[in-house]
Write a sequence for this structure.
């Protein structure tokens, strides 16, 4: 690196020669600023490929270099100086673009180191001790002071931006679900841009919520982490669309999922170690599929909530679709189930075993052997329980077989007390 000035006389302290260093730096201010900007653009990956950020970075660097030169020239206390407006705006823009805050902090560290190289080139060998210490400490204190300020600006802007973006996303999703959008191809593209999610494919709608206090961070972070894990486990072709709906629940769409497995979803929830509950719709395509699978997930969640503490952590709409319809009128459904099953609908362990055996028996086409395998009992036990269930009910299963199967399914999910 070329020397920027002649040899400086060594005074008793570093303030006066530091002013001379500042004068030398001022003569090359544009060159220094450009060099630091290019260095940061090359060394910080998050800034590459974004001309707008690079231009604003250049303005921020130039503002900081000018402020440091002015501070050294006049002996100003670093902590009495405000951050340059361009540096403040740069921090805000990084927050809006989602660039990690560590990129901002690293830029100040690299910029400080590079500026010191230029400053040391101004110092003659006889003045290194007096000048270097003064310049280094002064610039360090300035960078420490300003970087704290711009990080605070970054965090405030990030919170504000996320809150506004969340409100916009929620509003647009509500428009889609209520069929107010998209109104045409152009509007569809606009909605997709806001959501960061495309409608022209299969979607799997989920509702995730917490049934307790999370152990590893805020509720939303826990739900987002689980949604990302589900997207990976179910081979989604993109990131999950996660929309927090309240403090403990989120609406989720997984793109490109064509098949959902209870075992896979349950395994993800189990590995999380968190009290997460999941209600799943069925995969569906297009804008209408986006709405339908979400509505199914909400209905599956209603079944889980109606079932209470005994409900499994994962509920699939395909398993409980008919029961979900009954949940729209629980009192009416309860009366109907009791009318269909009679005394077999009474609570108690014995009645529950008879109902479950009869339910599986009917679901397997009346096979004692298949029912025995599924329940892990002897075929003779199945035969006895089925006969006994019909006796308790008080009439055979005949033309009302579909009603009986639905009533038994309702008891299995919602409990006999419902």
């Amino acid at each position: 690196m070329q020397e920027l000035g002649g040899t400086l006389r060594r005074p008793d302290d570093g303030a006066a020669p530091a002013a001379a260093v500042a004068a030398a730096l001022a003569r090359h201010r544009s060159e220094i600023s450009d060099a630091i900007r290019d260095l940061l653009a090359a060394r910080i990956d998050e800034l590459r490929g974004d001309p707008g950020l690079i231009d604003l970075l250049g303005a921020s660097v130039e503002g900081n270099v000018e402020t440091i030169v002015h501070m050294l020239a006049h002996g100003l206390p670093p902590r009495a100086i405000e951050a340059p407006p361009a540096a403040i705006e740069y921090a805000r823009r990084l927050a809006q673009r989602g660039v990690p805050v560590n990129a901002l902090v690293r830029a100040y560290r690299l910029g400080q180191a590079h500026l010191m190289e230029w400053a040391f080139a101004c110092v003659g060998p006889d003045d290194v001790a007096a000048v270097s210490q003064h310049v280094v400490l002064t610039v360090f204190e300035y960078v420490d002071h300003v970087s704290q300020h711009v990080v605070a600006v970054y965090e405030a802007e990030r919170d504000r931006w996320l809150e506004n973006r969340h409100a916009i996303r929620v509003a647009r999703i509500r428009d889609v679900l209520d069929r107010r959008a998209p109104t045409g191809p152009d509007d569809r593209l606009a909605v997709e841009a806001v959501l960061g999610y495309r409608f022209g494919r299969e979607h799997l709608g989920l509702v995730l919520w917490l049934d307790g206090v999370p152990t590893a961070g805020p509720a939303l972070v826990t739900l987002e982490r689980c949604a990302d894990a589900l997207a990976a486990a179910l081979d989604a072709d993109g990131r999950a669309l996660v929309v927090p709906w309240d403090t403990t629940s989120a609406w989720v769409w997984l793109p490109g999922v064509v098949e959902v497995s209870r075992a896979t979803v349950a395994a993800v929830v189990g590995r999380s170690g968190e009290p997460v509950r999941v209600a799943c719709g069925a995969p569906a395509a297009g804008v209408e599929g986006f709405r339908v699978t979400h509505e199914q997930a909400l209905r599956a969640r209603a079944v889980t909530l109606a079932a209470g503490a005994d409900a499994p952590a994962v509920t699939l709409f395909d398993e409980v679709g008919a029961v979900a319809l009954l949940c729209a009128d629980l009192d009416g459904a309860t009366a109907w189930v009791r009318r269909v099953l009679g005394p077999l609908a009474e609570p108690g362990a014995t009645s529950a075993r008879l109902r479950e055996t009869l339910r599986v028996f009917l679901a397997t086409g009346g096979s004692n052997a298949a029912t025995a395998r599924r329940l892990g009992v002897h075929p003779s036990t199945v035969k006895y329980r089925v006969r006994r269930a019909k006796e308790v009910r008080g009439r055979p299963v005949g033309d009302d077989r579909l009603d009986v199967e639905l009533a038994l399914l309702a008891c299995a999910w919602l409990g006999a007390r419902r």
Notes: The chain has three domains: 15-162, 202-312, 329-414.
